[in-house]
Amino acid sequence: MGALGCLFNFALWAGGLGGSVGLLLYLIIKYKAPWIALDLKYLAKLGKTKKKLMGYAAKHWTMVDIFEQRTRMYPNKTFLIFGDEKYTYSEMNDMANKAGHAALECGLRRGDIAAVMIYNEPMFLATYLGLMKIGVQTAFLNFNLRHKSLQHCYAVSNAKVLIVGKGDELLHAIQEIDSDIRSDDMKIYVQGHGDKTLEKGYLSFDDLYKKAPTNNINAKIRANIEMQDPACYIYTSGTTGLPKAAVVTHSKVFKGGNLIELCGMKHDDVLYTGLPLYHSAAALIGVGNVVEQGATLVLSPKFSASKFWDDCRKHKVTVIQYIGEICRYLLAQPKRSNDGNNEVRIAFGNGLRPDVWKDFQQRFNIKVIGEFYAATEGNGGFINTFNKFAAVGRSSPFTGLLFPTDFIKYSVEQDEPVRDENGFCIRCKAGETGLMICKIKRDTEYDGYMGKPELTEKKIITDVFKKGDKYFNSGDLMSRDEEYFVYFKDRIGDTFRWKGENVSTIEVSNVISDLDCVEDANVYGVEVPGHDGRAGMAAITMKDNNLPSEEQLKIIYAACEDLLPVYARPRFLRSIKEMIITATFKQKKVDLVEHGFDPSGIEDPLYFMDTTKATYVPMDQELYKRIVQGEFRV
């Protein structure tokens, strides 16, 4: 039913109160508040989802109960396609049961936490579902992390067991931090090594898995799990410091698993994702929606722009997942005559920028763009179910009664909300850009970070519109138009996004500042033409107050390569004589961000990360032009 149909039905309902009253309401809505029709259409969809989730809650179901139900319904239907391998619902259920039984043999019990570090592959899903079958919570470790970051992520997980997926690189990464994470009662199990001899202190998950039965694990083991109980932990950089474990409840798992249905996903769809399963986009939304619909998942080990559409055509994909960078990379590929020859009708994701949106949709012949906005640790979000260009969703006075989000004026220079003479925040008008905030109520989730109450509280703004009220600080700047469609503008604070990942400026700054030759480092993101997000840049002061020498540049490069994941390594350096700080001794970033990396407008020496030479090289105008024109890989 379209928006006009919803409006007409609403008028008919109102007409039951009296013909003149119904007509009056119809005219008021049509000419004074036409956006209400959009609200009714959206809330009608949402009502069905809410009723479904209430049913799950009443049964104390988790996502794995839905998966077992789908297995009974479609035992021989393909659940997963991975390269040339295919797994039916029944086969994946058997694998999950074996993984669950093996986990029990590892000593895991309901309520325990298991950390997993596994590549995008079938055993990730089998392990995740198997752990959920026995009521164990999973902490997803980013397989790109190394050294201090990886050590930190494992430490804050409070995991009883660490399960490492197949791949010598993963095992080596754990071995490098073994002495820092090892405790008397800790166990490390390794997958995919078969009959290979493992070093002392490492146990074979394969041995337990091979011996494990395939029968369904007794559901009593996970009985009476509540919606607000933790299901898993997904790491986010938040706003400061090292990655933090965001608490993901079973309620969030279910909500994520029902999002694409709002954009038209159905039982016979085939969903393709190349996003990492350790993130919420793939694990909660991609996998979750496939399970919820009883659909098919095509999983790629990693994103490949050159193979993306060939994979989609080969497997008759109808739904794809994206982050904005993926769409830009796909557009950058040479045009082919068969670009629009695919069966994809829904592209679902976030971060699709306006300058890419229409070209992407038209070139690849995609009918629906389901752009959404959410934060893993947050309590609110938006979804564009209207295929509205560049919007992440809607937030109207009507929907705001149910989902209380707001937009307040924010001073980027002062890095804080603007307050009036009474000390309260100021709401933005239509068209104004402001900080998006979500009200925290008893019936609104805000789970924050695992074991970090001080960091959870740091994301809360108080006394916003009245004394004592509390709102979640999204850390993102947005605007609303006259129809209450919401548009993402930028991130604020100490986090920026690059290569689809959130980069913590403090984490990068700490790595560089710890070097003997560096006095201090101020890290921020700069825009690079032709790329989404912001590339990392570090303004550095040297201890000898001189320019960094060739040897020192190599040392900085080596530290970044050794201690930071690829996406967090700063692409640019700026050598400054003195760090610029605020009156409260905070590093100032705004002017530095605005300067960018164009040497023609910056007096300070600039350097660029050259991976072929394993060092930072001086940035001149010629190199700048090559980067801007896309001739030099950033």
TrEMBL record:
EC numbers for this chain: 6.2.1.3
Recorded catalytic activity of this chain's protein: tetracosanoate + ATP + CoA = tetracosanoyl-CoA + AMP + diphosphate; a long-chain fatty acid + ATP + CoA = a long-chain fatty acyl-CoA + AMP + diphosphate; a very long-chain fatty acid + ATP + CoA = a very long-chain fatty acyl-CoA + AMP + diphosphate
Pfam family, one: AMP-binding
Record-level Gene Ontology MF annotations: long-chain fatty acid transmembrane transporter activity; long-chain fatty acid-CoA ligase activity; nucleotide binding
Keywords from the named record: Cell membrane, Fatty acid metabolism, Ligase, Lipid metabolism, Membrane, Nucleotide-binding, Transmembrane, Transmembrane helix, Transport
GO biological process, any: long-chain fatty acid import into cell
Cellular localization per UniProt: Cell membrane
Recorded topology in the membrane: Multi-pass membrane protein
Domain of life assignment: Eukaryota
Gene Ontology terms: cellular component: endoplasmic reticulum membrane; plasma membrane
Keyword Membrane carried by entry: yes
InterPro entries the record matches: AMP-bd_C_sf (IPR045851), AMP-binding_CS (IPR020845), AMP-dep_synth/lig_dom (IPR000873), ANL_N_sf (IPR042099)
Main location: membrane
Principal EC category: ligase
Record bears the keyword Ribonucleoprotein: no
Family affiliation: Belongs to the ATP-dependent AMP-binding enzyme family.
Protein name as it appears in the record: long-chain-fatty-acid--CoA ligase
